[in-house]
Design a protein that fits this description.
alpha/beta; Rossmann fold; FAD/NAD(P)-binding domain; 6-stranded parallel sheet; binds NADP nicotinamide-adenine-dinucleotide phosphate
Amino acid sequence: MRHVAIIGSGPAGYYTAEACLKTFGDQVQVDIVDRLPVPYGLIRSGVAPDHQSIKAVYKRYEGTSLSPQVRFVGNVTIGEDIAIDELRGLYDAVVLATGAPHDRPLGIPGEDLPGVMGSAAFVGWYNGHPDFARLDPPLGHGGAVVVGNGNVALDVARILAKTRDELAGSDIVNHAIDALDRSRVLRVTLLGRRGPQQIAMTPKELGELGHLARAAPHVDPADLPDPASDAALEPGLRKSVGHIRAFAANPREDAAVIIDFDFFARPVRIEGDGRAERIIVERTRLTEGGSAEGTGELYEIPCGLVVACIGYRTPPIPGIPYDEKLGRFANEDGRIAVGGPDANGAGGLYAVGWARRGPTGTIGTNRPDGFAIVDLIAADTEAGSTRQGAAGLDALLLERGVRAVGFGDWRRIEAAENARARAGSPREKFVDLAAMLAAVEG
Ligand code: NAP
């Protein structure tokens, strides 16, 4: 037997649990610990609510959770309820699958003004994450600026541009669909500090912008590079650039909402009287090495909302080696520390997913990542564990009066969320912990 604790119940955590089952057969016991009483991490709170087919991967994680060798232990905060070192005393291996839920700062003056926020906050708001449910982003101004040219920027721009009818069948939470319905935003500017061939948007997601009910993309043809140069691009990017070219060739100036691709534009500062009113932008050009350099030409874009979609950071945990520059745990291929051989030594410590490699890749990228970590655990640990595992954790939680939420409890929350969904939507999420815990008690 091996006892494994995984911190975080998002894709990286669940693929690691799945890999434990495949690798160790019935000789493993896995606890997936999460600070929220609800599982699935980014699938629940990060993936866009109008992308239900992507969210459907949770069914696979559900299958893993239904194994008698895997427990979901929700509502338990590592670092508050239980220390990492305590877990390392109880389990042969502790895997940090905590993702990268903090926004990278823009690092420009004015980013602390009300109306300026990162994508973790804004996406968390429309997805009903308890930390951001009360964000109340200002939507009363005609202009909104989304910084970044990645898939998250696309998600944010699309959600800002969609109508109530377009969002009705999604699982966007009611407070967000109501606020967006009242929104006065008519121009969403996507700021890209480089050009159309440097975007990090995938073709399927980018193509969606061409099929919105009242909104249309706008691209200035002057920003497009020589079409012949597309041949050198990797096929997915070439397809995405093809969409950008099509948007430029088919302008729909009459659309009620414009999603304006402002390329070669980097944010310099955000200004306003007590809140964001405008963003000052510098025109850029590409250097020979492909990075953006400022031209000195400045202009302003009026806006009441700025959402920075420029990447994420993993929150550090005191005592665990951390790479400040990369914003993730310092590790070697996922290994942070090798554990002692018996119950008297600390169990091994590992990082997986975004906590290991930073915020890149698709959900599926986490699967090989999970298997690679379990290969390391297999190499570093012995089969005949003398550690307490789940029994030891339960004893500590009981002693400290922590009400852990199990998978069966989560199913009660899930049933209650499904039952209160608006017509056409799969669920209406609870957005605060008290409501989630009340649903557990029925
Ligand atoms: P991302 O793909 O890394 O894109 C970040 C964007 O921000 C880039 O365009 C980058 O420009 C720009 N940026 C970074 N720092 C900046 C700064 N200081 N000023 C201006 N712009 C700046 O990150 P993401 O969009 O957060 O996505 C994270 C991961 O999740 C990605 O792998 C993404 O594909 C994935 N994801 C996938 C989906 C989907 O498949 N449906 C949806 C959402 C997210 P440079 O290129 O110039 O650095």
